[in-house]
Amino acid sequence: MGHVVLFHSVYGLRPAVLAAADRLRAAGHHVVTPDLYDAPAVETIEEGFALLDRVGEAAVTGRARAALRAAPPDAVLAGFSLGAGVAGALLAERPEAAALLLLHGAGGAPEAVRPGLPVQLHMADPDDYPPEPEFGRWRRAMTAAGAEMSVHRYPGVGHLYTDPELPDHDPVAAAQTWRRALAFLAGR
After folding, report:
1. Which pLDDT belongs to residue 132?
2. What is the mean pLDDT of residues 177-181?
3. pTM beyond cutoff 0.70
4. Cβ neighbours of residue 139 under 8 Å, at least 6 residues apart?
5. Domains in the chain, ordered, with CATH?
6. Distance from C-alpha of 112 to C-alpha of 139, rounded to nearest angstrom
């Protein structure tokens, strides 16, 4: 099985991210979950954005890059919401990445996509992160760049619906997400 670098959401390194990593490990993957804040996780999205502002995007990106230095070149880049954006942003620096797994948000610059790159996205429908017009442009650009896109939308759920400790949690959509994600990662 493959190596997965899993980046957390704006909330920080929450138990749901660690549980997701354990789920992937149980399927045979080697998974690392870097703490991009080097600070305790927070309870609200407002606190998360305030923490991100205090830590700074440069520090977050630096910690993500440090985590990737220890990963093989063909590691899967994965992330939750903000972490999906981090994974996508670092794709340009990881041209041999086996895949891009995006949970609760889109990420990745189309110019960094190699033809045939497997990309799987799971997000609420609708979801404000990113707004629908921006998401549509991103999806069209990723497809035009040659990504093998697999997009799964979950109607009527909240943004971070896989996190059982948040009000957005939807156990049915979360279970379906993990079945699909594990199938996507099988053999990578």
Report:
1. 84
2. 98
3. yes
4. 106, 149, 151
5. 3-185 (3.40.50.1820)
6. 14
